Queue: 2 jobs
Job 1
Amino acid sequence: MRIDIVTLFPEVALAPLSDSIIQRARDAGLVEVAAHQLRDWSEDKHRRVDDTPCGGGQGMVLQPGPIFAAVEALRRPDTRVILMTPQGRPFLQETARRFASEGHLLILCGHYEGVDHRVVEALVDEEVSIGDYVLTNGAIAAAVVCDAVIRLLPGALGDARSSEEESFSDPTRLEAPAYTRPVDFRGLKVPEVLLSGNHAKIREWKEEQSIERTRSNRPDLLA
Ligand code: JEB
């Protein structure tokens, strides 16, 4: 697949995608990722891409011209245009799975207080948000989306690990806690059951812990 990111901060979008698993997926040719400077499509000699909101209000709004030009330059017949915005639909694991099956994602990041709504009406297929908190920079959200999508591409994690994850992980339950050696660390013990070798009991304990952790940390998943 191919991913193009259009942003005022291309280096911010790419930095988290340039290490470890994701860089390996890129090196293996599973995905081509490029980040583009929106100002390169500015019509203005000062490379401006924003202006004050029509009707008044806070901050600055990204103008339609540079974004239309960027999308027209980068789009292919199979492109899905995504806008990162706090007003978007929740980006979930199922969204990542859907995006991973696309041929080309074109991710627009916005900046300042927003993007001229004609962009949303005419160009954007999907507005997405990575969660209910406020970031300073949409490029960070774009990197999160790319990471979640790229790790799902066949071969990105090694096939054994990815298929294991697909078939055995329950999205409505948190994982049981994990421990490793030493079994006594400063008097803090690994639970006895995990050292018992009784795999039926271990499975039962993990199930119990999984439910308790979900109740405590993510009651919304049980509801
Ligand atoms: C996405 C963005 C900004 C008000 C204040 C600050 C472009 N979950 C999310 N939180 N914030 C964003 C997001 C997503 N996806 C996000 C794009 C932009 C924040 N800002 C800063 C926007 N509006 C600019």
Job 2
Amino acid sequence: MFSSNECWRVSVLGVLVLSLGCNGLANGKWEIHDVNRPQPPIVTPGEYSVEPPSDAIILFDGSDFSNWQSREGDHVQWKLEEGQYMEVVDGTGDIITRDSFGDCQLYIEWAVPEKIEGHGQGRGNSGVFFMDRYEIQILDSYENEPYPDGQAGSIYGQNPPLVNASRKPGQWQSFNIIWRGPVFDDNGQLVKPARITAFHNGVLIQDNFELTGPTRHKRRLPYQAHPDRLPIRLQEHEDSVRFRNVWIRELE
Ligand code: MG
């Protein structure tokens, strides 16, 4: 057992270690977007789709964009195939939920374009950002080997998925995600990093991973204090990625 003073010292040490990790190596080994990092093993997923449970908040069921807006607060300019899906439109920007969320279970189905164009990160790229800043990557990772910390189901720039459970381009895939946001004290210091557990097509790909900070291409940024509830963001990265059956359950 620690005394409260010792606890304080232990948590300061923990924050120090975390912040050192932010600008350096992930898991003490790998540079950001390190191409020498091993590729996750390939796993063929079984059939998997989850209809929303009774206590879920429906964020998108194919009928309209009523729960979404642009980052500037304007109407969504993505394509709506009514009753079916929404689709990213190049150049129209990311979209965010109108409501804000903290800890949650998020379920989302997505499909990258059937026609393969581009390579690496330029192939079916999108993403789900929790709290508008922490991305789990969407990408066509089927027979595609981008840098491991940038493939589908990676915590972008930080942690590859445990396995590659990708389906073929054009097929519907799913993320079922448990998100625990970071905790900051009254002075804005990090007390507890964000954590994520995620299933890709029903297969565990992130196992209570502790994020090192917010997402940025080629950079590992330290945490910066922010509200404990913020919108969820879907990324427009030029590619015509589709989404359907999006729901959320808020967690204590
Ligand atoms: Mg992305």
